[in-house]
Amino acid sequence: MSSSEYAIEVKNLAKSYKDNKVLQGIDFRVKRGTMLALLGPNGAGKTTIVRILSTLLTFDKGSVTVEGYDAKRNPEKIRSVIGLTSQSATVDEMLTGRENLIMMGRLYRLTKTSARERANELLVDFSLVNAADRPAKTYSGGMRRRLDLAVSLIAAPPIIFLDEPTTGLDPRSRIAMWDIIRKLMKDGTTILLTTQYLEEADQLADNIILIDDGKIAAEGTAKELKSKMGNDKLELVFKNEQDLISAKSALKNKNISEDKSQFMLTVPVSNTNKDVKATLDALNEEGIAIEALALHKPTLDDVFLSITSKQDLPKKGKN
Amino acid sequence: MSVKLEFKQQPVIIQVLSDSLIMVKRSSTHILRNTDQLLGTFFQPIMFLVLFAAVFGGAISTALPEGVSYLNFLMAGIIVQTVAFGSTTTAIAVCNDLKNGIIDRFRSLPMSNLAVLIGHVVSDLFRNSISTIVMLVAGLVIGFRSSASFLDWLAIAGILLLFTFAFSWLAAIVGVIAKSVEAVQWLTFVIVFPLTFASSAFVPTEGMTPILKAFAENQPITQIVEAVRALILGTPIGNYGWLAVAWSLGILFVAVPVSYYLFSRKSA
After folding, report:
1. A6-227 adopts what CATH topology?
2. For B44-74, how does the pLDDT look when each residue is reduced to its tens digit (9 = 90+)?
3. How distant, in Å, are the alpha carbons of A92, A255, B31, B114, B172 from that of B25?
4. Residues in chain A closer than 8 A to B105 (CB atoms)
5. Which CATH number fits domain A232-297: 2.40.30.20, 3.40.50.1000, 3.30.70.100, 3.90.1140.10?
6. pTM
7. 23-52 in B: which are within 8 Å (CB) of A?
8. Of B64, B67, B71, B267, which shows the fewest CB atoms inside 10 Å?
């Protein structure tokens, strides 16, 4: 085990499949006991990064260190300190939940007793006790994901990779999964999570890296990324185009944007109380009625869309 | 977490063995829980045995040496054919592992990759042994008799087990190469069918055209069949005994490293 402050260090990582450059110079570090979320659209390269970090894939350039072990020189050392939950559920369908847990525990070199006791504990923690002795092929999607994650935790590895752990889950299962992940973080596990859901990264991660087209497009905490998008916005909706035009001239603000089809104006506000009041006062003076009004805080969606808006079409090749 | 975890420190060779044992248990559980396939394991060999004996028996018995019944002649051939076709399940199991995400799981664990293949091949050895015993019992019921001694039967078991083991490793290669389970089915079929039929498994090679005869007499299935047949019928075994063992060892020598190499390189 390394004494370094960072559990994962990736430097200038590059990977191509023939002419398809999947990763082009990725750099990041994950502090011990924190969670990093890799956020990006399909085909951005998130899964490729996870597969490289978990030693399932080799890479062309750069260096990867996990828990102080070099991925090229000591892949087998890395395997004993990580748990991987990949996108497709990777449990044995013919075996029961309990058998899956014990088998994987034994393959992590746990003793028989340890594997059995830890399996019992995880079945309770993941609400799988009632289904413990049924074959995994009878499980629902949410149960299978929980079993999958439980299997990754059987030997309590200090580092966990979660590749889109909630994709395809219903809202209730997703929230249950988030609770489990939060508990893991509380226990001090270092987590690398990939997701397409901004809310997920926002809710869970200490740091977020936006990946687009195999490159890092932005990084920081959720708060930092949101502040990059600037201020709050006041959205004003009017009854008709006439009101819209008079309102726009009444406000005399260069930075207003308008949406004629919805009779909507968007006014950036920096000092919320003062600016909102001034806007409303100005409209009041001219006697312009407002149909609806909303104060819009910037979301990660805004960041995400503004950075990745260039590419709407899915890319060819593996993601 | 309240459970205190204990890990085992073992030398590499012990680890590979222990991983293999875990994987044998896994694959055997698959075989036992796959009831459809298990039924096939029992009934298909009986069907083959009864059909071949009934359909070919009358026509071929005239080509057989004096005093040898077709059923007694057939037994060695039908066992080897069943075992050869039975290896398809190894190929399917390997192919399924690669298609499903589970291979990613195994590869991310500190375990030996070879153990996954060993698991399938060894558990198939059990399944094929059951098939063979079922066939021998069914044969006894419909009139099969042998003069083989206990030692002869041990030799027969040894030759067959070694051959099954070797052939399953060949099948593992097919399982890695094939792109789908359907591809596994026809690939093993086009390999196994000509090998078993262009051999002495069902008919003596005397009546074949010269080219076919040359092929039939020098390919491995014939060596295995003739060795087992000689032991069953109590006729001189000649070179067949050591040729059977040599072929099986030769196949193992090539197929184990090749299948392992291909399996390790193939990504899901």
Report:
1. Rossmann fold (3.40.50)
2. 888 888 988 888 887 887 778 777 889 999 9
3. 13, 69, 10, 15, 18
4. 84, 86, 90-91, 104, 151
5. 3.30.70.100
6. 0.82
7. 25-26, 29-30, 33-34
8. B67
